[in-house]
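Feature request, filed as a ticket because there's no other form

It would be nice if the structure record came with a short human-readable summary line next to the tokens. Right now we just get the raw output. Example of a typical job, pasted below so the devs can see what we mean:
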Amino acid sequence: MDERRQIDRILSEIEQRMRQLEIHFEQYFGGIEKRAPMQEREDLARSLRQFANRHIIQTNLRFRYQNLASRFHSYCGHWDRILRLMDEGKFEQGSGRVSAPKSAPPTAAESDRVAQVYDDLRAAYEETGSGKPPEREQVEDFLARQEEKIRRKFGDREVEFRVVAEGGKPKIKVRARK
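Raw output as currently delivered:
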């Protein structure tokens, strides 16, 4: 029973240290901390490795350890990805955002499509009488963000935008074409 309490206490300490490490990394990515907490990460990894070869008889403690180890490895993958993006200059430290790739100006067809959606949106605002429509730049930014999301999710499929009125308010519906 004494070994069970000891393992439980150690796992609780590891869990607390993991929460602290997560906070420190978020502070680093947010620009609050100047250095990544790599030493703390190594110490925590060392503590988890000590349990890897240890035979834990109690199922609940073994499950808890495996859960902690799995979470730690998931966090490590996430942190490594963001650190790599920072090295490549694609992550804005302090904003917590991945910067958009610098793209070429929109083609004539894309510009026509944006103009058509914007005109439809303005007409829908006039029909419903629901106030002032957004600026064209706002609509253009929104369409670009939505198109990028759809392409990430569905691949290189064509994206379709429609303006509809739901609940008396105009909305832009986005979907990937089949």
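Something like this underneath would help us a lot:
Residues 43 and 79 are 16 Å apart (CA to CA).
The chain has two domains: 2-95, 108-176.
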